[in-house]
From TrEMBL:
Recorded family membership: Belongs to the lyase 1 family. Argininosuccinate lyase subfamily.
Domain of life: Eukaryota
Name by which UniProt lists this protein: Argininosuccinate lyase
GO biological process, one term: L-arginine biosynthetic process via ornithine
Amino acid sequence: MATQKLWGGRFTNSTDHLLEKLNSSIHLDKRLYNEDIEGSKAYSRILVSSKLLSQEESDLICERLDKIKAEWMKNEFVIKDGDEDIHTANERRLKELIGDVAAKLHVGRSRNDQVITDTRLWLRNAIGILEQLLKQLIKTIVDRSFEEINIIMPGYTHLQRAQPVRWAHFLLSHAWNFKSDCDKLQHMYKTTNVMPLGSGALAGNPFYIDRIKLAQDLGFEAITQNSMQAVGDRDFIAEFLFWSSLTGIHLSRLAEDLIIFSSKEFNFVEISDSFSTGSSLMPQKRNADSLELIRGIAGSLFGQCSTLMMTLKGLPSTYNKDLQNDKDVMFSCFDKLTATLNIASGTVKTLKVNPINCKNALNFDMLATDLAYYLVHKGVPFRLAHHDAGKVVAEAEKRNILISELPLEVLQSISKHFKEDITEIWNYENSIEQYQTMGGTSRSNVMTQIDLLKKWLFACTISNKRA
């Protein structure tokens, strides 16, 4: 016997089987079973306040909904033909357990406000999971930065050796990107944690339910103020997908740097066996597939953001069935990000850095900027000092030697301000330590960065415990 559809009363013919299949979303939105059940339990309690359910009926509904939840958790819930979505499936099962009392639960409620409530509840929890994974990655970077603060390496612009920096300074540059992602998540939590339940299909709820009390019961910080906007709003999902795209890009840039640095041409780092793969043909190969997968997944995250944005751009107001596709991209982005964040943390934690190779990649030509700074300290305007330093580089290239090997008399032929103390600049540690301005690569500044991030992580931990 076919299950009676929630909306089937005005139809005389059965739904085409192809549309039936396309219309069904239970294979996706069954992930919302917990949120759907908790929302229904809260709604049943508020219906008691409106005298639409007795306390005994509400208690029975909540008790049986907990049983249904346990069935989902144990993978014992049986999806049947006609279970279009998670709401239909849960309501059908509830009716099997308690009969017609189950039919009272939906009064004043539409699947339009039900699904968006479930989605906000689910994403609210997902945001907390992603935040913890990001903090785990940041902590891994901070710990390595502290332990390896004395390692010096070339810094790059345009993928060309530019200036000496600390390895820790490089690592922390990525940590600050991820902290920014965390900050955006915290803002996103607020915009997500707004309750639409009580909006009905689009016009509102006529039964005088206390939406503020209902929101408090479900842990929402606020309620929506316009029922039409509430049921059609997917901005918070679009915001999440954009955030996922941006975070994916940050992960991809870290991955790309480490892929380059792990190549034999650089050999600054070695990716552990646990996060590498080999070649089926070339036995010597160690492929950084963990990082390459992160880099590749970043593109698909952006693609899923674009998918929803294109869905939203042409929609008329309130709910349209196009919006059924919002959960597909949302779930997919969450799954991909949880995987890549875990892989990124593991890869960074277990990689081996090669301090000697980092140091050997330095050369005195990278101190050409220091030549200009030397002249500035002698009173030469920077633009002229930069020009004279460029002449020094050109002269060294013409002689096929390093700039540090040019005789003093040659340097003085370029600028009379070069003196015997010029030899003091040919020191990488001194070069790094001159960057004492906040944000620079000197040891004190790198330690400041580490301390700031440690305090931030600690404050977040305390906040989570209080919550």
